[in-house]
Amino acid sequence: MSKIIASCKDIIKTFNSGEAEVKALQGITLDVYGNELLMLVGPSGCGKTTFVSVLSGLLSFDSGVCKLMGENISAMNDDELTTFRGKNIGFVFQAFNLLPSLSAIENVALPLTVASRKRAEALALASEMLEAVGLSGKEDVKPSGLSGGEQQKVAIARALVHNPKFIICDEPTSSLDHKSGQIVMELLTKIIQEKGASMIVVTHDNRIYKYANRIVHMEDGKITKVAL
How many structural domains are present in the chain? Predict the structure, then answer.
């Protein structure tokens, strides 16, 4: 059995909406293993994005224990969480979230420059990542000059440039056509194998289920099934 990278036990999260309480997570228990691509699936509103937000320390929770790389993230303050995420977690979003005024290489280098790495070093590492995702020659192109699939590759390169051990992808293929989505998933699978990272993919796209090591089904804030 591979090493446990993330471990959540009995996680409960409640949102207050006016006078009503919404139980977004109702006792979630889940381990994520090293070198694993785990997919989190289920209907909209079932708690998938809430869970990965808790897991990455972006969202607090009511009760339970959540550890990432052995660290209890609920015991960290905001500054400690920010530093921890910057070193250990990469994020890939459905909407790409690229800065339109920056070139591809500048977008990829951004996490490094924010972390006070020297600009020349950051750009060199960003160039290597763009080559790794198949975008060599596109370094100076801004997002508006790239296809949807190319923009997602830039977003993936940005998520990986600091060599995180844990990657969270929220609907990474839903804005892409079938061919582009398959290319992106093949790239993500290759990254896990080569870099020894672990990945959670939140998705509604059943066309990419075949890439998963495990598929975790959620409904109404609970895990209902884990499929291999």
Answer: 1
